[in-house]
């Protein structure tokens, strides 16, 4: 559960990819230019890349301003069911 990009302890991320062969990066910010892109770059530029069995997946907020309305926000940022569904798809090898 990284809190900052700098400093970022890459070791747990690399260890997880080496163990599972997969990576799912989830964050609430917009996908384009978001936090997750840097995490994916760190994976791609590390020894973890050689252990990947599938492309790294990103699940992030929609590329729109985050609304204040709770109902709209719910449909804008990843929810638990979205994360579970994406993790299952990744585990099954669905790209």
Task: Please give the structural blueprint.
Elements: H1 11-20, E1 24-30, H2 35-44, E2 57-61, H3 70-74, H4 80-92
Describe the structure.
- With 95 residues, the chain is of the alpha+beta class.
- The chain has one domain (11-92): Rossmann fold.
- It is 40% helix and 13% strand.
- The chain is built from 4 helices and 2 strands; from the N terminus they run αβαβαα.
- It has helices at 11-20, 35-44, 70-74, 80-92, and strands at residues 24-30, 57-61.
- The longest helix is centred in the last third of the chain and has 13 residues, at 80-92.
- It starts with 10 loop residues before the first helix and ends with a helix.
Largest β-sheet summary: 2 strands, parallel
Question: Which radius of gyration do the C-alpha atoms yield?
Answer: 14 Å
CATH architectural category? 3-Layer(aba) Sandwich
| Fraction in beta strands | 5-15%
Domain count, please report it.
Answer: 1
Number of discrete helical segments = 4
Structural classification = alpha+beta
In percent, how helical is the residue content? 40-55%
Helices and strands, in N-to-C order? HEHEHH
Mean pLDDT across residues: 93
Q: How does the overall form come out from the CA principal axes?
A: globular
CATH topology: Rossmann fold
End-to-end CA span? 24 Å
Strands, count: 2
